[in-house]
Automatic annotation (TrEMBL):
Pfam families tied to this protein: CSS-motif, EAL
Annotated organism of origin: Achromobacter arsenitoxydans SY8
Keyword annotations: c-di-GMP, Cell membrane, Hydrolase, Membrane, Transmembrane, Transmembrane helix
PROSITE patterns: EAL
Keyword Chloroplast: no
Protein name in the entry: cyclic-guanylate-specific phosphodiesterase
GO molecular function terms listed in the Swiss-Prot or TrEMBL record: cyclic-guanylate-specific phosphodiesterase activity
Single GO cellular component term: plasma membrane
């Protein structure tokens, strides 16, 4: 049995957990976004309403500042009217330097601005704005103070009652258990919603914005929320989406497991088939134009599954390549050929072509594998031909090239199989030392009975010759094709016309009839047919 590596369940575990993790991440992100957006709209309400109140205050302030030109008695009726008519104003006052001399609330007065807590010393004469915790009239209630210079050393001040702003903050805060802070002007104390619980209870800043009110003073709104709010919102979302994500994960995991199990079972199937000797090698003779004889064979794997039938080689070869079994299968092929060749009578130098997959070609195991094979069939001294595809040259990272060099140095030949169908650029051909081109049967089948030229075929043949390579044509089925190729100097011919692939015993029989006794004449092309 196969030892089970611990990482084998990794894809299954990943398939199971990825959707759940993705769901957790996405819902967390979504909860944060929703929380920020809600806080933003709360802040927008606060900002809009505050600006609305301040706009009225600025407007009245202009008129109040103008009243600094007249004595308090004369200014008072206007101050009182404006102060009473506007619900947001606590009082309208006039001051000289830092002493208040007139107030809509108490009439003529004389007290210092220092009674306003947090009164700042340096105020810009053009207009100023700040928040205070309380005023002399209402020391416990915050207020917003707006001021402007009037005539010589006098200024007008509008005291906006913080109560309205605070009520607004409180109302908005109930939306989500928020704590909201509003700060207008520089340096003043912020006005805060008086939420249940102290302000220093753990709460995290969710949203904060600073806008420039009328270009005169910054207006800062901060929205805080208890940290568990986000967690709760996230849990809500998770409750909604987690079942679907878990289901998806489960589906993916089952899929991944099945895929793995299939692969494992295919590998196991191949191993069992090798052990049960279900594979066979068929040998397709290759006709040599120079000698007029069979000069070699291509070994082709066949799989006859008991009770199932014949499995097409292109299918099981491709599956074996995909599942990392091709090297094992090719080694099995070597063993089968070694067994078959023990009863052969082929002369030294007889070519034995073997298809080598890309993975094997670029594996460091290729050289020892081939050396062992050559050793094991040394009684017949064949020339081993590795048939490789163009793809295996393209994907080479250097190892294939080293393998080819090492094996060619030992007399092994290399053929490019199915030449013309891959995507091999001509530069590869120059770069890689090979011995043969095997022209794909598609080009051979392009030979028309009408006698027209097959231009692509002609170019490939010429190319092979110019590169000094032997050229072999595959899939030759008719005399017409045969003659066309011979006329163009194609040295080696493989195809049903000469012989079909056949099992070893049948090949031996066939070969006995086709290998002419020493010194015999070269047969005419019409004697080619296998029967
Ligand atoms: O004649 P046949 O149908 O067997 O060939 C189908 C395909 O399978 C051909 O492309 C041939 O190169 C490939 N093939 C046949 N036997 C082997 C083998 O032993 N190894 C590899 N890699 N390919 C093979
Ligand atoms: O390894 P390669 O791709 O060259 O495999 C050769 C394939 O061509 C094998 O599947 C073999 O059975 C097949 N074949 C060999 N001779 C002929 C032929 O004359 N005609 C056709 N159609 N197929 C052939
Ligand atoms: Mn081949």
């Amino acid at each position: 049995m196969e030892r089970v590596p611990s990482w084998r369940y990794l894809p299954v575990a990943l398939a199971l957990s990825l959707p759940v993790l993705a769901c957790a991440g996405l819902t967390w992100w979504h909860a944060q976004k929703a929380q920020r957006e809600e806080a933003e709209s709360a802040a927008r309400i606060v900002r809009a309403q505050t600006q609305h109140i301040l706009a009225q205050a600025w407007e009245v302030l202009d008129r109040v500042a103008a009243l600094t030109a007249v004595p308090c008695e004369q200014a008072l009726p206007d101050l009182q009217r404006w102060g009473t008519l506007n619900p947001y104003f606590r009082s309208l006052i006039l001051l000289r330097d830092d002493r208040i001399y007139c107030s809509s609330a108490v009439g003529k007065a004389d007290y210092s601005v220092s009674e306003f807590r947090r009164w700042s010393g340096s105020l810009s004469p053009g207009g100023w704005l700040f928040t205070v915790d309380g005023t002399p009239l209402a020391p416990e209630r915050p207020a917003i103070l707006l001021g402007r210079s009037g005539t010589d050393g006098h200024s007008g001040v509008v005291v906006v009652d913080g109560r309205y702003v605070q009520d607004l903050l409180n109302a908005v805060a109930t939306l989500r258990d928020y704590r909201i802070e509003l700060q207008v002007g520089e340096g003043g104390a912020p006005i805060r919603s008086d939420s249940q619980g102290p302000w220093d209870a753990p709460s995290s800043l969710v949203y904060s914005e600073t806008t420039n009110h009328d270009g005169r003073a910054p207006l800062i709104v901060r929205v805080k929320a208890p940290p568990e709010d986000l967690v709760q919102a996230w849990q809500q979302l998770m409750l909604t989406y987690l079942p679907a994500a878990a289901l998806l994960g489960l589906g993916l995991a089952v899929g991944a497991y099945r895929l793995q199990a299939n692969r494992r079972s295919f590998k196991e199937l191949l191993r069992r088939a090798m052990r049960a000797d279900e594979f066979q090698v068929h040998y397709q003779p290759i006709y040599g134009q120079a000698t007029g004889q069979c000069e070699g064979v291509e070994a082709l794997m066949r799989w006859q599954r008991p009770g199932v039938g014949y499995v097409r080689p292109d299918i099981f070869i491709a599956a074996a390549e995909e599942d990392g079994m091709i090297i094992a299968l090719t080694r099995h092929l070597f063993a089968l050929i070694e067994r078959d060749m023990r009863s052969w009578t082929t002369p030294p130098g007889f070519h034995v072509g073997i298809n080598i997959a890309a993975e094997h070609l670029s594996s460091p195991e290729l050289v020892p594998d081939i050396e062992r094979f050559v050793q094991n069939v040394s009684a017949r001294q064949p020339v081993v031909v590795l048939e490789i595809t163009e793809r295996s040259l393209i994907t080479d990272d250097g190892q294939a090239r080293r393998n080819i060099d090492a094996l060619r140095a030992q007399g092994v030949l290399v053929a490019i199989d199915d030449f013309g169908t891959g995507h091999c650029s001509l530069s590869y051909l120059q770069q890689f030392p090979v011995d043969y081109l095997k022209i794909d049967q598609g080009f051979v089948h392009a030979i028309q009975p009408s006698g027209e030229d097959a231009p692509v075929l002609d170019v490939i043949i010429t190319l092979g010759h110019r590169l000094g390579l032997a050229v072999l044509a595959e899939g030759v089925e008719t005399e017409l094709q045969f003659n066309y190729l011979v006329r163009r100097g194609v040295a080696l011919i493989q195809g049903y016309l000469f012989a079909r692939p056949m099992p070893s015993e049948q090949f031996l029989h066939w070969y006995a009839g086709h290998a002419p006794p020493p010194g015999a004449k070269r047969p005419e092309s019409s004697n080619l047919g296998a029967g």
